[in-house]
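Take a careful look at the protein record below. Let me know whether the structure tokens fit the sequence:
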Amino acid sequence: MLLRHRTSLRGLFVSNSPCPIMTSKHFLNFKPTTSSFNYPDTKTNLYPAHKFISSTFPSKSSPKLVPLSLKPSNLSFSSHASIPRPVSEAYLEKADDEIIIDTPQLKALEVKLKEIGIVSESFGPGQKNGLICPMCKGGDSGEKKLSLFISDDGNSAVWTCFRAKCGWKGSTRAFADVKSSYKRMNALPKVKKIKELSEHELNLEPLCKDLLEYFSERMISEETLRRNHVMQRRYEKQIVIAFTYRRKKELVSCKYRDISKKFWQESDTEKILYGLDDIEGASDIIIVEGEMDKLAMEEAGFRNCVSVPDGAPPKASSKDLPSQEQDVKYQYLWNCKEYLEKASRIILATDADQPGQALAEELARRLGRERCWRVTWPSKNEKEQFKDANEVLMFMGPAVLRGVIENAELYPIKGLFNFRDYFGEIDAYYHQTLGNELGISTGWKALDDLYNVVPGELTLVTGVPNSGKSEWIDALLCNLNENVGWKFALCSMENKVREHARKLLEKHVKKPFFDVRYGKSVERMNLEDLELGKKWLSDTFHLIRCENDCLPSIEWVLRLAKAAVLRHGVNGLVIDPYNELDHQRPPNQTETEYVSQMLTSIKRFAQHHSCHVWFVAHPRQLQQWNGKPPNLYDISGSAHFINKCDTGIVIHRNRDPEAGPMDRVQICVRKVRNKVSGTIGDAYLKYNRVTGEYLDIMETMNRN
């Protein structure tokens, strides 16, 4: 059940005039009343009417804030307070060297920057903060998050938009293309000197009554605020929240938040995690995306929590991890390394939006996915979910927030899974029938107990020349299409297209293609049979062929087979034969290593696309062959052919009239990895030379 949001805070002001106050979302107007700042050691202080809160970031490069209209007195004001500007991810000091201005390269650079929309009152060397990004326009609120750095010689510039939903960055030189990039410019200069801070120097004060009520509105208690040293800072016309960053109880940095939810930090300070002392020596820690979320976690009973000091990136980087020196944005992790490396379990409770998930990925990459866990925020309704810890605390309460953390799941690692990830697939597999995915019948009763076709497996087919390997596979494909509607991709290098079409049509129509000797007295297929057969060919088979003189590589074949799977929905792939492929390999790679790598690629393709692959490989030249079926180890090239395949089949045709009928074909199943697909043994089929069909011997006897 959602907890109702409490009524809005009273106005934070110091006179009888109404004024806007700090809330989670909006400026609010209230009736005149009298309030005061509450400090433990001071009496109530009343301030003149001009001493109320306002928010702006005045600078030479920023326009003045539009005066706010106050009702009912219709007063207006604009702030000219001298307030620290927001500081970007890297803080720079101006060089003491002589600054070069009004040079030809600087003029050219200024023109180039203006062309792409970067506008500043000054284009001199150094750092420019608080500019409007021409890509995102600062979003709906017009945030000035673009930072521009111009080199001292005025010849180059680099810029970055630090808005979480933008992240646009680039670099250029005065006389180079804007899209050029230079590694030296990508690494912003480091802080030259870290300044020391104190509460007295920063004029920090305890929170006034109205700010305490503001935090109470967000379910944060005064005790939690006091323990985390949350304070306030007063400027001429503004009061802001001050989140103090401490290490060993010493003040290291300070981050401010004003009434419009804008954040900035003290410049030239060391970046560390907020609440760092709370995770000292902890084996389990929680990392959140904002200071308010850190405070919310404490309200739910978790003090072992820290917040990142900066915002989230728009998306996770696909590049390799940078070195410590180059990892500027996440320098706070390196600065807190001694605290983080002791943790054995790190729960990433970043925001539910895309930048929040990108931040979780960046943290996991640096901290080690093997010790990271992630949370799933509860749903608000059917379409939305809560964004962060503080939102869950406000609307669902501390017990629900506690449950979110306690039910955190292992952070996914690419390539490492648990059977739990496959429970849905296992359930579907259990309910499948034997005649479908568990092994599809070949259509020959003699083979039912020995060989069934399983999607995603590799069948190796071999046999001495002219044994009918390709013919048998073609007959098998026709049976599978007729029985279960399978489609196929054919990479058959030894067959001309028209000859292969003839063989397939004869098996499908069950009539000879020509009226010649092998057709005997059987009626030839007519034009109607041919037209229907051509449509069947077009619907059932897709050809992978090299139309020039070069041989296809296995990578090329599998790439086109993938396209056939995705575009045409094929269920099976035939590669016939192995020795017609291009087998170029590095000089330092043996044939055995090459064959192993090739078969691994084929198996991965089969498994990934649930596509059965038949691979034909010829045996090596057999010395003193005795006419018996060859062995799988006789295949030319490597023993990996039998080691890697799921099923190994030898096709053997009788050539001795004294040994039996000449039309009898022996199907020798010599290897079966998956017992679902069959078992080792021999089966015999009869080859119909007129139509190219393979028939069960018992079936032919019944026909006769």
